[in-house]
Amino acid sequence: PPSNLTIPIGYGPSLFDDRFGLADRRPEALRDLPSFVGDDLDPARSGGDLCIQACANDPQVAVHAIRNLIRLGFGVATVRWSQLGFGRTSSTSRAQVTPRNLFGFKDGTDNVVAEDPAGQTQHVWVAPEDVAGGADWLAGGSYLVARRIRMHIELWDRTPLMEQEQIFGRDKLVGAPLGGKDEFEEPDFDRLGVDGQPRISPVSHVQLAHHSRLDGIRILRRGYNFTDGSDGAGHLDAGLFFIAFMRDAHTQFVPMQRALARADLLNEYIEHTGSALFACPPGLAEGADWGSQLLG
User: Fold this and answer.
1) Banded pLDDT at 132 (limits 50, 70, 90)
2) 6: pLDDT confidence band, cut at 50, 70 and 90?
3) Whose CA is closest to 48, among 144, 132, 123?
4) Which phi-psi region, left, alpha or beta, contains residue 290 (left: φ > 0; alpha: ψ -120 to 50)?
5) 3-state helix/strand/coil string of 13-64
6) 112 and 123 Cβ atoms separated by less than 8 Å
7) Is the pLDDT at 224 greater than 80, yes or no?
8) Strand 86-88 versus strand 142-151 pairing type
């Protein structure tokens, strides 16, 4: 297939209102995300009835796929918002080198990977017992959380390297947790520095988001960088288009984001400007139609 094109689809909570008679088919966990401290969400870049994500090695192929799907939906569906991203910001396999975000740090080191099917079963795929009754169409699927996160690049570039590393809790060169040597070693949050203080700050990004600080919560990150020109004031409108898949956004993403929003040192340099949650059904059998799981 051209450029390894794949097209996941998803359904938003608003699709299951009274317009289409689907209320009894809505999964219980498919409800709007709560607001978080520091959110500056643009309603025009949030929510939606349907989600179409085109992924390809060549962005022209991805854009062409979206264009054709929009054309097929003319008169029935309209585009609410879209986001073009480039370059992975998280590795999803041990065979991949961990990519970097626009702040220059490796991102997604502690991700759920393809070589961990037990981890995927526990954290990513919706189990049959999670969706009873009319929502059983989602069994084997996953929830997609999308967050448009603007990064204040110019402010970050003026921040000293040592402070940047303290904010993330990782070495910028190799991605190792501070005080460690290897990117993939477990962070030692009890290790002290020469000043007697924790080597990794309790409010660093890595500590607040680590599964050991979140009762074992993990998610599958699969985000992308974006640059949308400048904001008219000489600043780049750029950042992370955060995309993650999980078994239940309200028991996984919500407590994680609340912890980050409350205390993360990184918050000085970022703002969340868009947000959405979708339920993505499992992959289709050969020759099956989109929507066949939901509509029967």
Assistant:
1) confident
2) very high
3) 144
4) beta
5) HHHHCCCCCCHHHCCCCCCCCCCCCCCCCCHHHCCCCEEECCECCCHHHHHH
6) yes
7) yes
8) unpaired
